[in-house]
Structures are given as C-alpha cells and as structure tokens.
C-alpha cells in the first residue's frame, strides 16, 4: 500500500507535465535530468513552437532514495525570464508520504504566499493508508513548527 501511494504521487507529477503537451502539436516538452550528491533533479520546459517561446518550466527534486522532495513551477516572461508560479514540498515519515504543502507565488509582494494548502496523509498502526485531509496553514506558523 505504501508503494502504491508513492507511485501515484510520482505518476501525478509526471502527468501534470505530459498533459500540457497532449493533443497540441505546436507544443513540445524538453527535459533535462541531472544527478547530484543529494539526489536527482528533473527539469521539464514546455515550448510553444508556433509562438517561438517557452511557456512553463517544472523542476522536480528527488532524494537519493527516489522520494519526490519538491516541485517548482515557473512561467516564462519575455522581459523578466522565469518567474515563480507555485511550489509543492513533500515530507515523508517512516518511508511514506506524510505531508504535501502547496504554495503559490504572491506576485504583488514578490514572495511565496503567507498561506499554503497542506495535505496530511494518515495511516494505521500497520502503515496502511487511511485518509488524506486538506488544511490551510499560515506559513509563518509552519516554519516555526519545523
């Protein structure tokens, strides 16, 4: 069951990039994978061939065990370059996903938003998945808890 949840999480991450290109021959996805001492970084860029410009970039960071640690999304701005859009941070406990925190970029204040959406995964004493709960969190409180 633990492996199924992790597999679904990783599959969802890859499909979010693949769906962008589905059915649109004018868009192409370029990828780059690099291995570091701390894990693997996978970068995907969606390029619009008709417009001649990049649109979106997703960067996935994995630890050495293959666990997804973070997903960063960027949007392309022709004058400013890559701009933050959103991020997802993944936390594990006992080898299974415990929390996924989604945060959007606050364009007005030029920083990550003060509020995030956190998915809390619950398991029974044998490690079988029970439920997932969505909670909204204040990032200042969340940083203090870590």
Could you explain how this protein is built, in words?
The chain is α+β, with helices and mostly antiparallel strands. It has one domain (2-13, 26-145): Beta Barrel (Lipocalin). It is 18% helix and 59% strand. The protein has helices at residues 2-21, 139-145, and strands spanning 27-36, 39-48, 53-63, 68-77, 81-93, 96-106, 111-112, 115-123, 129-138. Strands 1, 2, 3, 4, 5, 6, 7, 8 and 9 form a 9-stranded antiparallel β-sheet that branches. Strand 1 and strand 2 (39-48) form a beta hairpin. It is globular, with a radius of gyration of 17 Å.
Largest sheet: 9 strands, antiparallel
Number of helices: 2
Assign a percent range to the helix content: 10-25%
- Beta fraction of the residues? over 45%
What's the total number of strands?
Answer: 9
pLDDT < 50 stretches: 6-15
CATH third-level topology: Lipocalin
Number of domains: 1
**Average residue pLDDT:** 85
- Report the structural category: alpha+beta
Summarize the helix and strand pattern as letters. HEEEEEEEEEH
What does the overall shape look like?
A: globular
